[in-house]
Amino acid sequence: MCVGVIYLFFFFCAVLVPLAFYCFFVLARPTLGLNTPVAAVTPLVLEEFTRELAAYPLSKRRYVLDGIRLGFRVGWEPDRVSLRSRTSNMRSASDHPDVVDAYLSSELAARRVAGPFTNLPVPLLHVSPFGVIPKNHQLGKWRLILDLSSPAGHSVNDGIPKDPYSLHYVKVDDAIRALVDLGPGTLMAKFDVKAAYRNIPIHPDDRYLLGMKWRDRFYVDLVLPFGLQVGPVYLQFGC
């Protein structure tokens, strides 16, 4: 009798409790679809940007406002390359599965990632490998990098022309020159935007290019990932 009770208790703790936890927190978790509105995945407020950019040149203002309203295009040209998915992730992902789990859970809650999907959510979903790296000067914080340059010759980045998205960073000499030109009393400030990349929504027509696979489930990035060739351009445009 005692042996039977002990066995049942062990079975309950070792099997039923974990199974119930999995069903409730994983299977019962609502899936965020690819048709999620752009406004739902970004904290950027169109009305505020419209007001603040009123004095900007029309072409730059329209580019930014259309991007916030409709999502930004990644610049991928289908005639440039034949895509091939790669579902085997980098070693850093398999070495730190708890980090990947926490990242995806956080991004799903923030509505920045769609999924999880048991099957391909769209027939042409392109899946790229990813890895994780620790953030500089932020103990315990990690960043997920989507390798959109893999596989070589058949990746998303291979299909993005370089010239339209070339970037020239502002140099210290440029800042000094601006201070001299503006004269005494000029003030300069530098600030860092929290999760800057993850604030920028991707156009729904390009979402299928940003697929990921983890634990036999598919996910799709709905905002700008680290690893996209044109990423820095979005943050520097118009500066």
Describe the structure.
This protein is α+β, with helices and mostly antiparallel strands and 239 residues long. It has one domain: HIV Type 1 Reverse Transcriptase, subunit A, domain 1 (HIV Type 1 Reverse Transcriptase, Chain A, domain 1, Roll). The chain is 34% helix and 10% strand. It has helices spanning 2-27, 46-52, 58-70, 91-95, 97-109, 172-182, 231-236; strands at 113-117, 130-134, 142-146, 211-214, 217-221. Strands 1-5-4 form a three-stranded antiparallel beta sheet, with helices on one face. A two-stranded antiparallel ribbon has the order 2-3. Strand 4 (211-214) and strand 5 (217-221) form a beta hairpin. The longest helix has 26 residues, at 2-27. It is globular. The protein starts with a helix and ends with a helix. Mean pLDDT is 84; it is low at 3-13 and 15-30.
Strands, helices and their partners?
Layout: H1 2-27, H2 46-52, H3 58-70, H4 91-95, H5 97-109, E1 113-117, E2 130-134, E3 142-146, H6 172-182, E4 211-214, E5 217-221, H7 231-236
Antiparallel strand pairs: 1-5, 2-3, 4-5
Keyword list:
alpha+beta, 10% strand, 239 residues, Hepadnavirus_pol/RT, 3-stranded antiparallel sheet, 7 helices, two-stranded antiparallel ribbon, Rev_trsase/Diguanyl_cyclase, DNA/RNA_pol_sf, HIV Type 1 Reverse Transcriptase, Chain A, domain 1
Strand residue percentage? 5-15%
Rg to the nearest angstrom? 22 Å
Number of E strands? 5
Q: How many structurally independent domains?
A: 1
Query: Number of helical segments?
Result: 7
Q: Mind describing the biggest β-sheet? A: 3 strands, antiparallel
Just name the CATH architecture.
Roll
Oligomer: single chain
Shape: globular
CATH superfamily: HIV Type 1 Reverse Transcriptase, subunit A, domain 1
Mean pLDDT: 84
**Helix content, binned percent:** 25-40%
